[in-house]
Amino acid sequence: MTARNRELFALIPASLLVTAGFAAVFIQRDDLLSDLSLTYGALFLGLCLAAHLVLRMTLRDADPYMFPLVAVLACFGLVMLYRLDESLARDQAGWFVVGLALFAGTILGLRGDHRVLERYRYSIALVGMLLLLLPRLGSPVNGAYLSFDVGPIAFQPAEFAKIAIVIFLASYLRDTRQVLVVGARRFLGITFPPLKHLGPLLAVWGTAMLLLFVIQDLGSSLMFFGGFLALVYVATNRVSFVVIGMALFAVGARMLYAVRPTIQSRVDAWLNPFDPELYNREIGGSYQIAQSVFSQADGGLFGQGFGQAVVQLGDNPPILPAAHTDLIYAVIADELGLLGACAVLLVYLLLVERGFKTAMLATDSFSKLLATGLTAVLALQVFVIVGGVTKLIPLTGVTLPFISYGGSSIVANFILLALLLLVSDRARREAARP
Amino acid sequence: MNAPILRLFGLVLVLFAALVGMTSWNSVINAEEYRSNELNARPQIQQQRVHRGVIRARDDTLLARSVRGSDDLYKRRYAPEAQLFAQVIGYDFLRIGRAGLEQSRNDALAGERNELTSVVDQLRGRRRVGDSIVTNLDPGAQRAALQALGGRKGAVVAIEPATGKVRVMASTPTYDPNRLDDSGVYRRLSTDEANSPLINRATQAGYPPGSTFKVVTATAALDGGGFTPESTVVGNSPMNISGAPLRNFSNEQFGSVTLTTALTKSVNTVWAQVAERVGNDRMAEYMERYGFDSDPPMDYPDAQMLPSGVYEGGELLSPASERVDIGRVGIGQERLRVTPLQMATIAATIANGGVRMKPRLTSRIVDADGRTVERIEPERARRVMSRQTASQLTDMMGNVVREGTGTAAALEGIEVAGKTGTAELDIARRINQPSFIGFAPRDRPRVAIAVSLERIPGGQGGVDAAPIAQRVMRELLR
Which range, A11-25, A196-210, B83-97, B275-289, is most confident? Predict the structure, then answer.
């Protein structure tokens, strides 16, 4: 069976899932099954088929499982949002269409050879940096500068910046990876990269620190810096570089912790979520993380079922704040239990596996590094938000890719998927060639 | 570059395993701890989201129901009749928690069945609905009891002897349970030391039983204790009991009298001597058989039931202890603290031929579709005395109402058995605790009753308590 036919078949469970999910929410809500759930399922299937046809025409050999896996996540996200607030789900469905359009656009634009991106690497890097600094123009949400308003739309540039920065790093490291290794010096038993090339790397570290300082968001900078270290490691195969990088990050973060109250309160809330003073603090307290774990505790092994989580009572302030964005994983664990939450994590893991597989199949260094970087950033984003929600690490505001509510997030992640599929198509075609 | 990519994937696996580990910790392993965290209001909110079952009286009168508020939570509403049973029904409110039957029958009312049923219900998309409970309580008789108490503090308990079904459990002063939702009202009522309206005096008040306790002494004496109703004892006054003089009521001299006469006329010195001759151990044994020294086996929260017995510094002291003046215990004095529920249980046990039944407030549990889920069957606690002893005691108590101190409890055309009690609380100011226990009809008892009144100036069991018992029994035997 060809790759595209396999993809088509793999889409069937995704559309069944969305139909069943909407049906479950309808039953929960009205105690009667409306045929609207079938309409939603059919609409979703239509959209996926359209995207599939684009892939069939342009990227015949691309990985057949990535798109269906993303479709499962996206449709699951729609059902969760629909359960929380119908209007949010309608918005998100709109963004889903925009995302698919840009997905198709990216593929059509770069189908010749995605390596043209290398030519614009400095422009892309600059755009990425500017995007990151843009929110500073807006007002902070919970102390962090994550979004700014374009008319009625809250734009989250970090979602796009992560792609730009990965493209830049993949291209930069392709050029310098050899010299980084060859010119390395051993000092005090640790291998240091040559000073001349240390500069740009330190610049990246500086950027991450600046991010932390300017937008005051630990989550995004952890994601960026983690992606950067993953790329450096894959490019050079030197663990010592990663260790040095992590040490630098730790030092920087520790210093910022001392001077930035926003970061301080995040860490305090993580360490002592049930401290009454922190719990009752109006801004930057531990209420959110405490409610997050309380919500998960309600879920148990099987969950309470769709629509059963305590999120909001009437028109009062929500019991579980940011349930549709940051804390959506807590709602999943609450309503679908440990098993449902693990199933979601498994889908992400399968997607990450396909991404790394693509990187390993790719023949040129840029494609390898690009696929590795994009996959690593995606995996890290999942880790940062789920880790935060589950109190493994301090809670920071990044979205759960494809599931959380947010136009920027879903559109940017569809572009990320398009790039991965572009790399995959070329790699698999070349691998199949005798 | 493929080897580092593979190792990177390995790292991602480790990170995701940590996420699964943390989720397991939060959702399953440590979930109980989080659910009981005092900052966590979710368990309460969830229970208020369940359409809680209704509570009904024996005749199906609606006592408590739940209505849905704007915030999607259900709120308890108590019918006017519930005020009659305020302390028995209890309450269920988000801010102040639960008490009474609302607490002891919470699992049924909140629809909490076993895990499997709820999973099946969930799969069928059913919203959890609580079961209803039908009580044994009789609103007509309860109203009669409250009217007869007439604003005096005290309690009335009426039990069906053969089944242990609690027909009346009145405690005054009472309150309107609906108002407890206002936390200010709750705070005021719960700190009102003078009236303590939230206290269920029928189960929580340890009253001095006075002469009603002579029935227990008589049980220990007749049931193999070497006495018969015709045994004679000298009833002069005063007599030396445990090194201190004990007097009869009005210091009356009786000479040599039978036990039947001694019960009819409530002769203190006779029963004190009987108790001394029966001895601490045997008295302790019979008290325990009647249910003293432990929480009553009733479907009601333990925190709202007081074990009856001899108390020393707030702790139960075994009547077998040498520190207990058993002669004075035998006439209901000493440091005896007895709840009206325990007193009613004594009367019910004798009425039931010597077998003590467990008192039951609930009759059955009914699901949302009207099917009976569980019928609360009568359950025997134990045999306290032989059938013969019970029959002798019945005759003796019959005399009390026919020609002794308890004539005010007599019913027209129905023979009543009973015993009065007048415990002196403040001899100088003549403040007494009048009480009465009894049952009717004497030969085929359908109701056993206990009445106790708090601090009545010049009050006497036969004058103040017996008429209340008469009125409630008449209502129940109609």
Answer: B275-289
Q: pLDDT band at residue A187, thresholds of 50, 70 and 90?
A: low
Q: What is the mean pLDDT of residues B66-83?
A: 85
* Boundaries of every domain in chain A: 3-432
**Tokens (6 digits) for A120:** 């614009």
Name chain B contacts of A25, Cβ cutoff 8 Å: none
- pTM over 0.80, yes/no: no
Q: Tell me if B72 and A314 make a contact (CB, 8 A cut-off).
A: yes
Q: Are A342 and A333 in contact (CB under 8 A)?
A: no
- CA distance linking residue B32 with residue A286, whole number of Å: 20
Mapping DSSP to helix (H, G, I), strand (E, B) and coil, where does residue A153 land?
Answer: strand
- Is A349 at the interface with chain B, CB within 8 A? yes
Task: Cite the beta strand spans of A161-311 per DSSP E.
Answer: 185-187, 190-192
Return the higher-pLDDT residue of B135 and A34: B135
A260 or A419, higher pLDDT = A419
Facing A372 at nearest CB: one of B5, B35, B69 = B5
Q: State which residue of chain A sits closest to B36, comparing Cα positions.
A: A294
- Pairwise CB contact (< 8 Å): A392 & B2: no
Residue A322 has pLDDT above 90, yes or no: no
Residue A235 to residue A193: CA distance in whole angstroms:
13
- All residues of chain A having their beta carbon less than 8 Å from the beta carbon of residue B44 are none
Q: What does the radius of gyration of chain A's CA atoms come to, in whole angstroms?
A: 22
* Contact assignment for A338 to B24 by CB distance below 8 Å: yes
Residue A214 and residue A129: Cα distance in Å, rounded?
12
A181 or A374: which leads in pLDDT: A374
Query: Mind telling me how many Å the CA of A232 is from chain B's nearest CA?
Result: 10
Cβ–Cβ contact A20 with B under 8 A: no
The predicted model gives A382-396 an average pLDDT of: 92
Output the pLDDT for position A321.
83
Confidence of residue B18 (pLDDT cuts 50, 70, 90): very high
Tell me if A274 sits within 8 A of B39, measured CB to CB.
yes
Give the pLDDT score at B472.
Answer: 97
Contact A293 B70 (CB under 8 A): no
Domains by residue range for chain B, with CATH: 141-476 (3.40.710.10)
**Cα Rg for chain B, rounded, in angstroms?**
27
Closest-CA distance of chain B to residue A72, Å? 19
Query: B310 or A188: whose pLDDT is higher?
Result: B310
- Which residues does chain B have within 8 Å of residue A372's beta carbon, measured at their own beta carbons? 5, 8
Interface check for B37 against chain A (CB to CB < 8 A): the answer is: yes
Two tokens, residue A414:
């569809």
Q: Three-state DSSP class for A40? A: helix
What span, in angstroms and rounded, lies between the C-alpha atoms of A318 and A297? 18
Q: Which residues 293-332 of A have a C-beta within 8 angstroms of B?
A: 293-302, 304-305, 310, 313-316, 319
Cβ atoms of A96 and A74 within 8 Å: the answer is yes
A290 touches chain B (CB under 8 A): yes
pLDDT in tens, B94-106: 777 889 999 999 9
CA separation for the pair A337, A320 (Å, rounded):
17
